[in-house]
Amino acid sequence: MLIPEIADKYEGKCKKGLAHGKGIAEGKDKYVGRFKNGLPEGKGKYTWSTGDVYNGYWKQGKRTGKGKFSGEINGVDSMQYGIWENDLFVREIIKNPYSIIRTTSVSRYTVIRKGDGNRILFSIMQAGNQSSYSNLFLTNDSGTAYSVGAKVGFENIEFPFVTRVTYTVPSLFGGSSIEVEFEIKIIEPGYWEVTINN
Fold first, then answer.
1. If exposure means fewest CB atoms within 10 Å of the residue's CB, which of 56, 124, 170, 192 is most exposed?
2. In degrees rounded to 5, what are phi and psi of residue 6?
3. pTM, entire model
4. How far is it, in rounded angstroms, from Cα 165 to Cα 84?
């Protein structure tokens, strides 16, 4: 093992007397993952004696590629998820700020973060116009009901926030009605507006 902090004990594959392939190396620190020529190489998890952890990709014993570091940075508990080069954090990878869980009878939708805050408003449209709907039901995991004109939603919400909207609209050609369902999880805090078209 070529890194002194993990050189006390090694279990795994070797080549020419060096860790090579999958293995576990321990000393003051611990590394579980792939090795090449005695150094972390490929995917692996390194845990420092301080409790700091890096889980991601390595090249020649240095953090290189996509990875996540959890630990203390400048005296503050922090997390860095992104791209590393030569053991240095280069840039953050932004995770999608929201995810659509389910849609039923929705032709299209838009989700826009309008600014800072802690609220979400829904506009319900049909053929590009405000829709006449009935049986509107909104569920939420935090916040209080809120409306502005024809828009409905929640304020004082906590993130991540999950909400489900169900309602009934007349079909475009009349005679029948359509049951609509839209469920979204918003991860990034802010003031959000969602437009549902059917």
1. 170
2. -125, 25
3. 0.57
4. 40
